[in-house]
Design a protein that fits this description.
Blueprint: E1 18-22, H1 27-36, E2 42-44, H2 56-66, E3 70-73, H3 81-86, H4 88-108, E4 113-117, H5 146-166, E5 170-175, E6 177-179, H6 192-206, E7 210-214, E8 220-221, E9 223-225, H7 226-239, E10 246-248, E11 254-255, H8 256-267, E12 272-276, H9 291-296, H10 304-318
Parallel strand pairs: 1-2, 1-3, 3-4, 4-5, 5-10, 6-9, 7-12
Antiparallel strand pairs: 8-11
This protein binds guanosine-5'-diphosphate-beta-L-fucopyranose.
């Protein structure tokens, strides 16, 4: 018989618990570590070069040694639209392996609570907006991120299956497009906000006339500041115990063109924009219905203007 897991349907008390943040060096994992530092618990982590989460035997051995009582799965192979659309195998294999290895070992070791991080791209490309949790698996995915989405859906379904069959208190939640301190600013692999910050900063320094913006500038996106996400994750870890995944969003959306102008305002760039329509737009719109999370008692607090300022300050201090 498997060891006893957390109690289904009950709040989870983090006090004194060993909480493993898988992926603690990434943007999300670092924000979760910052947030857990304000809780009376014991966050644990392991560097990527000591543990490859894609190797099942290594993951099982490390977890059996450390014995986490709760886990937040923030580890993932991630990237922006171009990385997603060109590294299909990596995005599918890495993310499937990370999910199956951690979730399966967590059950065997009697982990009391596990929170798996999905992504808004799990929803169908043509889902009705804003997208409620019920839209999952109701239609075809956006092709530029199909592989990542399939892996994330599988991870979320694993949590549900282990809950139903084995009684494990494993939950999942999916945020919208994230940004913030610690983001990836590499222009080939990054998401749109860090890319625009890096490009606009460079254009200003070079006195360039314009910044290149991929696509038409027309797609709508909803952005969530990573420290708000971390707060929502800890909130859910403590208060939510259900089979259904939970959307995490702000309810506010902006076009990519308007975002480029907002970033230019923060950076102080006076020039124009070149829209490169050789690059993909991806999903036309991706607004989450975060009503369920709001009814549970959580809302974010960082608006886009404030979040962009904080992210640009971090970029200048660390990378520029
Ligand atoms: O952030 P992003 O790469 O991800 O792109 P997605 C968002 C929008 O910004 C797209 C446009 O319409 C891009 O064409 N964009 C404009 C840029 N300029 C740039 C630029 O310089 N770099 C980038 N990267 N985009 C991702 C998925 O989709 O969303 C992932 O690929 C993940 O699976 C993530 O789910 C949240 O919103 O299109």
């Amino acid at each position: 018989m498997a060891p006893e897991q957390g109690k289904l349907g009950q709040p989870y008390d983090l006090t004194g618990k060993r909480v493993w943040v898988a992926g603690h060096r990434g943007m999300v994992g670092s924000a979760v570590m910052r947030r857990l530092a304000t809780e009376d618990c014991e966050p644990v982590s392991v560097p990527r070069d000591s543990l490859d989460l894609r190797r099942q035997a290594e993951v099982e051995a490390w977890m059996a040694d450390v014995r986490p009582q709760a886990i937040i799965v923030a580890a993932a192979t991630v990237g922006g639209i171009q990385a997603n659309a060109t590294r299909q195998a990596e995005f599918l294999y890495d993310n499937l392996a990370i999910a199956t290895n951690i979730v399966h070992a967590a059950r065997g070791l009697g982990v009391e609570k596990l929170l798996f991080l999905g992504s808004a791209c799990i929803y169908p490309r043509e889902a009705a907006q804003p997208m409620a949790e019920e839209a999952l698996l109701s239609g075809p995915l956006e092709p530029t991120n199909e592989w990542y989405a399939v892996a994330k859906i599988a991870g979320m379904k694993l949590c549900e299956a282990y809950r139903v069959q084995y009684g494990c208190d494993f939950i999942s939640a999916q945020p919208n497009n994230l940004y913030g301190p610690g983001d990836n600013f590499d222009l080939e692999t990054s998401h749109v906000i860090p890319a625009l910050i890096a490009k606009t900063h460079r254009a200003k320094a070079d006195g360039a006339a314009a910044v290149e913006v991929w696509g038409t500038g027309k797609p709508l996106r909803e952005f969530l500041f990573v420290d708000d996400l971390a707060d929502a994750l800890v909130f859910l870890l403590k208060t939510y115990s259900g089979a259904g995944p939970i959307n995490i969003g702000t309810g506010e959306e902006i076009t990519v063109g308007a975002l480029a102008e907002a970033v230019a305002g923060v950076v102080g760039f006076q020039g124009g924009f070149d829209f490169n329509t050789e690059k993909p737009d991806g999903a036309p719109r991706k607004l989450l219905d975060a009503g369920r999370l709001k009814r549970l008692g959580w809302t974010g607090k960082t608006g886009l203007a404030e979040g962009l300022e904080a992210t640009y300050a971090w970029y200048k201090a660390n990378l520029a």
